[in-house]
């Protein structure tokens, strides 16, 4: 067993930019994400809000520089009829949210509410269109409603509802999980459905046209990606999605807070799987699109556990521990390192659902460890990728092995090099040597760690886990020596 962890900057003439859209988020009409999460209503006098959306959430997301927000689903998207969510709120029909708890959805948060929120957040909307139970006309109308500047039936309707200028929404999902909740389609059938829908979605008024993103594979369904890449003309296809959750076992996911090392190790195995999935889906995409014009869009990722005791099983409410910080740090490193093909990703989900960055309870709001990882990593957004050669020890558990360290690096517009590092080993610190490509004057850093991997921020102790200064990196002549503690995330700035 050696302590031989090394990082070298790989020589490369390539200047791949890490798209900021890798740091995207996802807000579905699910449980307490929108209602009693983001949206508390315009009439709420106890929780400060802007057009009904909590100000504390707005400020927290602004601090992350969130680049895009996916909405309204998820599975919900393929049941959603957007015209139910426009016009005077008192006239909007109530529907049943059949995927998530069979609760009544009063449609009080609709297209204007979402797109105005995106403007407040200075983030790009990513709308998932209803392909499963909608129609081609309905989706074409939605595009016209939000994007068309001139006179048309839909832009007139938008003006009637109080919005003069179009929002110019670029990112559109053409269905969601078409192989499952989006219609249980076979890929051969979905490609024809996709071709038809995409044909009628007009890009008029949007610079460069729309980015139409096909509902992608679940995990290792390579046949799905192959069929899409082969059979959809690439002028209709700007992105192909991929969904992968770090779930131990769909039948028994385990508690989000009470877990032992065997469960932790399995979660890390599932999380590392993302590397293999991206490599293999990319290989298929490279075969049909060697110039890499079609993006891989990982528009759902994150940890998924049993719901917190006493909460609605259909609401997917879970706590967020240092285990989730490991998932976040590792996955974001993987996406960064594949930035040539992965141009967008969306953590599931933003508030009160799955691996949330924010949890709320009445007036209170907390930031989870995952939030802090996103905040520490925001320096990579739109920075130039620095490919790394990484040698890492293994994290061993009962005769099984995983790479202990994951890392990625980039250079920002000011010329500062950042390296993000995750050590998933529960027991050992890792001593890492970074060999230098040029002379640096200083190294500084921040770290996210806690005493126990099961630790989390609670409403009683909201700041138990937050980033602190990192003193474990020393600049020497022959490189930087770093000691990364067990289950911690470190981000370094080299100047
Ligand atoms: O994120 C929760 C659900 O997971 C989404 O609605 C669906 O797309 C996926 O199965």
TrEMBL record:
Taxonomic superkingdom: Bacteria
SMART domains given in the database record: Alpha-L-AF_C (SM00813)
Name of the protein: non-reducing end alpha-L-arabinofuranosidase
Domain (Alpha-L-arabinofuranosidase C-terminal) ranges: 299-488
EC numbers: 3.2.1.55
Family as reported in the entry's similarity comment: Belongs to the glycosyl hydrolase 51 family.
Major enzyme class: hydrolase
């Amino acid at each position: 067993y050696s302590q031989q962890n090394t990082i070298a900057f790989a020589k490369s003439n390539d200047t791949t930019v890490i798209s900021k859209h890798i740091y995207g988020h996802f807000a579905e009409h699910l449980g307490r994400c929108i209602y009693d999460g983001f949206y508390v209503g315009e009439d709420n006098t106890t929780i400060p809000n802007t057009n009904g959306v909590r100000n504390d959430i707005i400020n927290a997301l602004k601090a992350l520089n969130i680049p895009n927000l996916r909405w309204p689903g998820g599975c919900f998207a393929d049941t959603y009829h957007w015209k139910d969510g426009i016009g005077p709120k008192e006239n909007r029909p109530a529907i049943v949210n059949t995927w998530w708890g069979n609760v009544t959805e009063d449609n009080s948060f609709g297209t204007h509410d979402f797109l105005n929120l995106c403007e407040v957040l200075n983030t790009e909307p990513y709308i998932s269109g209803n392909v499963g139970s909608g129609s081609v006309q309905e989706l074409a109308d939605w595009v016209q409603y939000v994007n068309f500047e001139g006179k048309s039936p839909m832009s007139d309707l938008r003006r009637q509802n109080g919005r003069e200028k179009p929002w110019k929404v670029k990112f559109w999902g053409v269905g969601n999980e078409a192989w499952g909740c989006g219609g249980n389609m076979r890929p051969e059938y979905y490609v024809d459905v996709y071709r038809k829908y995409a044909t009628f979605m007009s890009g008029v008024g949007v610079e460069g046209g729309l980015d139409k993103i096909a509902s992608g594979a679940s995990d290792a369904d390579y046949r799905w990606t192959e069929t899409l890449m082969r059979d959809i003309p690439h002028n209709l296809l700007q992105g192909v999605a991929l969904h992968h959750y770090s779930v131990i076992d769909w039948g028994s996911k385990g508690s989000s807070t009470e877990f032992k090392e065997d469960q932790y190790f399995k979660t890390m195995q599932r999380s590392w799987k993302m590397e293999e999935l991206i490599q293999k889906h990319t290989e298929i995409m490279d075969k049909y699109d060697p110039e890499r014009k079609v993006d891989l869009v990982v528009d759902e990722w994150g940890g998924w556990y049993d719901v917190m005791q006493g909460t609605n099983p259909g609401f997917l409410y879970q706590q967020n521990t240092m285990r989730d910080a490991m998932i976040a740090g590792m996955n974001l490193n993987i996406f960064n390192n594949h930035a040539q093909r992965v141009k967008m990703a969306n953590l599931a989900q933003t508030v009160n659902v799955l691996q949330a960055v924010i949890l709320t309870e009445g007036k209170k709001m907390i930031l989870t460890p995952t939030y802090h990882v996103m905040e520490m990593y925001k320096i990579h957004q739109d920075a130039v990728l620095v490919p790394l050669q990484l040698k890492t020890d293994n994290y061993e558990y009962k005769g099984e092995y995983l790479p202990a360290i994951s890392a990625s690096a980039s250079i920002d517009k000011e010329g500062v090099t950042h390296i993000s590092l995750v050590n998933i080993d529960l027991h050992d610190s890792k001593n890492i040597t970074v060999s230098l490509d040029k002379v640096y004057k200083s190294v500084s850093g921040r770290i996210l760690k806690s005493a126990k991997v099961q630790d989390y921020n609670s409403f009683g102790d909201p700041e138990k886990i937050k980033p602190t200064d990192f003193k474990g990196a020393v600049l020497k002549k022959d490189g930087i020596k770093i000691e990364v503690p067990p289950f911690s995330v470190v981000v370094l700035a080299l100047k």
